[in-house]
Predict the 3D structure of the following.
Amino acid sequence: MTEYEIREAGEDDLASARQVMLDTFYRDFDHGYVPRWHADVVDLRAAYLVPERHALFVAVLDGEVVATTAVRADGPQCPPHPRWLVDRYPSGTTAQLFRVYVRPGHRRHGLARRLVREACDFVARAGGYTAIYLHTDTRVPGAEAFWRSQAKEVHADLDASATVHFEIQLP
């Protein structure tokens, strides 16, 4: 059995984690890097390692990052999301999960599930959060089914953006 290490990312993980994210944008999302959506990826250190209540988690195999999950104290933004959703999940008290990506050759090993659990445990330890929020693109194979097994749907915007918004219960 393959032994993956799940851990909070350090400086030495950032380049490899960034590559996992960029590869996902180009391969799975079909749109590549979009600065207004993916600015955090340019400087992962500033986005996830420096702020106290933010974090980046990685799954590592043989020294290579093969999966990522991140937490930021940011709620959804309007636009593109509805105002009521932004009001329900305000920045500062909402922990939003970002960048839950697993390289194709490492899928179906429970990595996303383990990384999300680590991220949720981090949110509970960090304190000050009242909700864990995320959204997913339903066009990504397996994404919607995965999140439905982990979280509760709060809104679906399938006509305009193929996006489903979810909340995970705080641990």
